[in-house]
Amino acid sequence: MSLKNRIISVTPLVCLIVYLAIGFIWNIWHPTWAIFFLIIIVPIILNSSFGKIIYPIICLAAYLVIGFVWGYWHPAWLIFLTIPVYYTLFEPFFQKKKKRIEFVEER
């Protein structure tokens, strides 16, 4: 796994740790949620494919809807814990798709 992929993989965990630390230490929960935008921004900056970053976008949208509509910011952050699970389970599918594309390009 390349350094770029490792950084992308660890971003949700780092965002979560920073969010919880700021929230529990200084009790600043509401504006701190913006830290989770890094989950989307980091792969874009590191030139990741759009197919790989669609799940964090869905998680972020769900988090924002739950927070703004119902006000459940605190339990909704658990959604972001599913991102590493998603990539762990579906990474082989991304690799197979990439290999198929490379094989087709060789012809």
Sheet bearing the most strands, described? none
Number of helices: 5
Q: State the helicity in percent bands.
A: over 70%
Q: Average pLDDT value?
A: 83
In total, the number of strands is 0
Approximate strand percentage: under 5%
What's the shape?
Answer: globular
Which class do the helix and strand fractions yield?
Answer: mainly alpha
Q: pLDDT under 50 segments (min length 5)?
A: none
Number of domains: 1
What letter string, H or E per element, gives the SSE order? HHHHH
Distance between the termini: 27 Å
Cα radius of gyration in angstroms: 16 Å
What does this structure look like?
The model has no long low-confidence stretch (mean pLDDT 83). The protein is mainly alpha-helical. It starts with a helix and ends with a helix. It has one domain (3-106). It has five helices and no strands. The longest helix has 25 residues, at 82-106.
